[in-house]
Write a structure and sequence with these properties.
single chain; alpha+beta; three-stranded antiparallel sheet; RNA-binding
Length: 343
RNA sequence: UGUGGAGUAGCUUAAAGGCAGAGCGGCCGACUGUUAAUCGGUUAGGUGUGGGUUCGACUCCCACUUCCACAGCCA
């Protein structure tokens, strides 16, 4: 037999990632991938038991759904196609038949993100619900996250022990999660920035109403709470085109992000969707998107629509948080990242 | 893409202008009460690449390259 490449010795990240096919045999990696499996099943069990229908959405898509991120191009016979960044638009078609649906599959983002929170290929579960407003959505997310965390605690005690996860932090993830508006969050950030003494951090925490939050903002906000934090009502300008404007306050939209505690950041992004066809067309123009790409999506409203909402949960970020990992790369057996697609 | 840090033996590292050293691994032998690594011996690199400064460069300078962290983008 050949000598086993991984010795009972500390190794560097690059070496371990080059030897990922062997590394997954080690104790910690074994534990993480088992927790991932349990979380994945918990996600599906919760939704299945809550009346959701699982409908798969296409991975090959003709254009950018949200019109923002960079997508991976693939050749599709004589045409250019893209790997899907979300199944949401298709979900919105599916709820008009099924009421409550979810898709759960690989998602691709060609952003050159070089952080501990990003993969170029990751799994996202996207529930979408008809007759659901923003408040209903938050309640759903709360129940969903609570179920996932409590199931992981119950079924993965041994794995979390191996990972030396402080489970007392996870045991608190139950009941109502705090909800703050974007306006309030900006106020809090101003106060927190005042208290900050380190000039470098103080600079990072600069923010004005209308700016999207950066990672440092999310971190200090979540540090104020022990549970995941809902931040709702972001400025429309920093969010996707399809989000429903706030009544009497069109500069704000009915969006909500769920920020995980302990510095794990955004694990869910969601919103109430626009259900009025004319507002949607206007929004598409306002975002400089080609309306012809969205004709069927606009038609969903033209033939009768209902208030509806949905969100996307990143599986790997959730696994990283529940396992207490410093980096997302260990949450999947063979991660695809900027500068890494081997093995 | 920007900022900062780092590339020395298979792996993890020491050497801060003056002879590149160690631990683990490997190999040889001993042990045979054993599951993070028994004991002895031995092997192994000329320092990411290309230039430059210097009597002399792992060490200083420039370019390139790879990796890491943070930021942006987002799940």
């Amino acid at each position: 037999m050949e000598d086993y490449p991984i010795t009972p010795k500390e190794h560097g990240v690059e070496f371990l990632m080059d030897n990922r096919h062997h590394w997954i045999r080690s104790r910690r990696q074994w534990a993480i991938l088992r927790v991932r499996s349990v979380i994945k099943k918990a996600i599906m069990d919760f939704l299945d038991n809550d009346g959701f229908i699982n409908i798969d959405t296409p991975i090959i898509t003709p254009s950018a759904a949200e019109g923002t991120s960079n997508l991976f191009e693939v050749g599709y016979f004589d045409e250019t196609a893209y790997l899907a960044q979300t199944g949401q638009l298709y979900n919105e078609a599916n709820i008009m038949s099924m009421g409550k649906v979810y898709c759960f599959g690989p998602t691709f983002r060609a952003e050159k993100s070089k952080t501990r929170r990003h993969l170029t290929e990751f799994w996202m579960v996207e529930p979408e619900v008809a007759f659901c407003d923003l408040d209903d959505l938050m309640v759903l997310e709360e129940r969903f996250i609570t179920y996932i965390v409590q199931t992981a605690l119950e079924k993965c005690a041994a794995e979390l022990e191996i990972l030396e996860r402080d489970t007392t932090a996870l045991e608190k993830i139950t009941g109502e999660f705090p909800r703050i508006s974007y306006d309030k969050a900006v106020e809090m950030l101003h106060e927190l920035r005042e208290k900050e003494t380190d000039p470098e951090k103080k600079k990072e925490l600069e923010i004005e109403w209308g700016d999207d939050f950066g990672s440092p903002h999310e971190t200090v906000l979540t540090q104020q709470f022990e549970k995941p934090l809902f931040v709702y009502g972001y400025p429309s300008a920093v969010k996707a085109f399809y989000m429903e404007p706030w009544p009497d306050r069109p500069e704000v939209c009915k969006s909500v992000d769920l920020l995980a505690p302990e510095g794990y950041g955004e694990i869910i992004g969601g919103s109430e969707r626009m259900s009025d066809p004319q507002k949607l067309v206007d929004a598409i123009h306002a975002h400089d998107l080609p309306p012809e790409n969205y004709s069927w999506y606009i038609e969903l409203r033209q033939f009768g629509s209902v208030p509806h909402s949905g969100f996307g949960l990143g599986l790997e970020r959730t696994v990283a948080w529940i396992c207490g990992l410093p980096h997302i790369r260990e949450t999947t057996a063979f991660p695809r990242m900027l500068y890494r697609m081997n093995p």
